Amino acid sequence: MKPFLFITDFDGTVTAQDFVYQIMYRYEHDKIFSKDKKRGVELLSSVFYESGLTEEEFLKEIKYIPMDRTFVPFFKFVKEKGGDVLVLSAGAKYYIKKKFSFEGIEDIEVFANDLVFENGHFKFLVNENKNFHCPVFGINKEKVVASYKEKYKKIFYAGDSYVDFYASKLANFIFAKKNLVKILKMFNLKFFEFENFDDIRENLINLI
Fold first, then answer.
1. Which one of 50, 89, 93, 148 is CB 3.0 to 4.6 Å from 10, fit for a cystine?
2. Strand, coil or helix: what is 122?
């Protein structure tokens, strides 16, 4: 088995906010209230399809994603220590991989839904792998983490929302922020609250 795997959510964890809301706030002001009632696949499909952005405009928006500047050094630190990093997201691999590419990271593993540009619109493609499929979010994070537990001695998980809750419970140690902190406290589960990946790095040194 490999030494350890660090799994992290992307939107709201590696970034300051969800990319879908960035698009909503900048281009769909008149629809924010109605779309805010939606969630998961339904929300992303609606926002990305109706935004009307060209592929070039979409790429510019990806460059604007407010990313935690401590993540890239953290990624390199994990690799130096013999660990692997997996970005596990209910968002879209398209914008996640593009953002990392802009940050100089090409070799990071991303497990997420897919997004393609067809006929002048972005089409959100749900992950249809029956082993990991979730009708609401496209991907069942808990099942994905369970599959990786068979390959690694230790699993660490970082997330920010209720979507990460069940998946994080399978990890050897949880790093949490925002809503995930509140949920974990409700269930009296052990975790470390963090603001950025420098915080995680300081604690991970002792855990590995």
1. 89
2. strand
| 89-148 tens-digit pLDDT | 999 999 999 999 999 999 999 999 988 888 888 887 776 677 888 888 889 999 999 999
Q: Note the pLDDT tens digit of each residue in 185-199.
A: 999 999 999 999 999
Decide if pLDDT at 155 tops 80. Answer: yes
Cβ atoms of 9 and 88 closer than 8 Å: yes
In a domain, 76, yes or no: yes
Specify if 127 maps to a domain.
yes
Task: Please report, in angstroms and rounded to a whole number, the separation of the first and last CA atoms in the chain.
Answer: 15
Q: Which of 145, 133, 43, 130 is nearest to 88 (CA)?
A: 145
Domain limits at 99?
2-18+64-207
58: tokens are 């979409």
pTM exceeds 0.90, yes or no: yes
The CATH number linked to 87 is 3.40.50.1000
By C-alpha distance, which of 23, 82, 10 is closest to 51?
A: 23
Residue 184 belongs to some domain of the structure: yes
Does residue 117 sit within a domain? yes
SS3 93: helix
Phi, psi of 86 (to 5 degrees): -125, 125
